[in-house]
Each structure stands twice: as C-alpha cells, then as structure tokens.
Specification:
Helix 3 packs across helix 9. The chain has 327 residues and is mostly helical. The strands form two sheets. Strands 1-4 form a two-stranded antiparallel sheet. A two-stranded antiparallel sheet has the order 2-3. It has twelve helices and four strands; from the N terminus they run αααααβαββαααβααα.
Length: 327
Amino acid sequence: MIDTLKKIQLQKLLALGALILLYAFFAIFGRDFVSMPSTLAILSRSYFVGFLAIGVTFVIITGGIDLSIGTVMMCAAVIGGLLFSRLGVPLWLCLVIMILIGTTFGTLNGLLVTKLKLPPFIATLGMMMVSTGLGSIITNVQTQTFPLPLGDGPNAWFARVFIRSGDIPMGVFFLAGYLIITLIVLKKTKLGRYTYAIGSNEEAVRLSGVHASNWKMIPYIISGFSAGLASIFFAAAYFVMTPGTGQGFELDAIAAVVIGGTSLSGGVGSVTGTVIGVFIMSVLAVGLVSLGLAPPWQVFLAGVVVIGAVFLDIQRTSRANQVKKEK
C-alpha cells in the first residue's frame, strides 16, 4: 500500500509538472494565450469531461474500462431535454431523471461485468451502442433543448446554478466539490481500499473472504452516476443536444485519466491526477489554437501524448515487476 501511495504521488507530480510546462510553452509562443477568453475556454472545455474522467478513474483503477460514458451522457441529456421541452416535466425533476439514467447504465455495466462475466471492453462497448440507439429512439432523432440563460422566468435558476456566475462557468465549482468527495472516498473509505486492492490482485481479495464482485460493481455505478452529472453540465454548456452523438467524449476522459497517472493495468491512480490530466488536455487544445494550428493537429498531438503516457506506464509496471522477481 505504501508503494502504491508513492507511485500515485510521483505520477501526480509528474502530471502537474507537465501541465505547468505546457502552459508556460503556450504562454510564450501562443498568441493571446494568457488572457481571460483563453482561461474561460480552458475551464469550459474541462468541467463536463472532468466528471466523466473522475467516474471512469474508479473503473480503470480496478483494471476495467468504460467506453459507454460519452454516449450515456448524451442519452441522458437528450431524454432530459425531451421531458423538459416537449412533455413539460419540471426542470428540477428532469435533472434528477438524467442522473438516474446515467446511474442505471452504470449499474447495467457493472452487472454485465461482475455477474455475467463479460469482458469490460465488450460489455461497455455494447452499452455504448445501446445508449446511442435508445436516445435516438426515444427522441425520434430530434434535437432537444434546455433553457437559455436569458430572462427571469421560472427556470432562470438553472442559469444561476449550473451555467455561469459572472464569467466563470459554475461547472468548475461543482467539479471541484466532486473532486473533494471522490478523493475522500478513494483515500478514506473501505470502497477506496477495495477498489485499489481489486485492481492490484482481485484473486487475493476474493481469497481473503471479500465479495470482490460486489465491490467491483460499485465503480461502474459511480462511472454511470458521473456520466449523469456530466449530462447536466453538458446541457448547461450547449443548450441544444443531438441524439446519436456523444462518441469521442469517453476517449477524452480516458486519455485524461491515463495522462494523470492512472495505470490501465489497475491498482494505481488518483482522481487528483485525473483532473490534472483533464486540464492538460484542455490547455493543449486551447494552446494549439493560439498557435494557429488546425483542429486535426489537436487530435493528432493528443493521441501522441496518450501513447506516451501509456508507454511510460508500461515501463513503470515492467520495472516494478522485475524488482519483485529479483526480490
């Protein structure tokens, strides 16, 4: 456990150092990068992906994966928009239903992985397709809307609570609060200890008398719940949602998790490192725009960064296993 904590602290420091260096590079060579519009762009790109990334961190620490979070987020958002704009359901209730939709998909993912013993990749890939199709079927492939931040009508509270406070996106404050809660869960609770233990050696956890499958299911539920939360802030940021979309956001989230130091082999990781990874991705995207590079370069360089992060993780894991064998 001590070795695991040391690895987590080192990886967080490396990720933070990379973020600082990346920001300094764009501040020197980018055009108007150090400005309020650029800062707001970085924050706006970060918060709903941050919720997805924090949730999937729990899953990846167990050695699993969740490819459905992006489409689950969009499915929840479009169904919530349909309930609000077409059926007249109270807005507060729509938000609750959106979280429940995400949590339901997370629970189904957990059941497929732990009870039916499907590989996480296959189970969540299938659920990605299910959520994409379900959102399109229920909404009849029609775009859905949420309240715009205009006027003082009965739903004006939505803008004040979820959209902006002055120029700062409210999602950033909610993300900070969620980070603190999940940090406590991972560090101070039995769930956190078992999450790391399952990722390190699930068989040892099972042999110790713990119902490993039950504890392994909870991270998938957390991932789905996080996708439900993300759907609220996505709706608050974009107002108009298109059914059948959402693919790609899960890759942004997983990339941020890997860049933040969470090992794809399980057993090592932190939500703090994940949030740093989210901001690295956002700084990279906004910074490349400040250099005048086209969007394809953003995707290309983000892929290079992810490959590099995975390669470093593999090297660390190989060295750690070699040391264990020598001992």
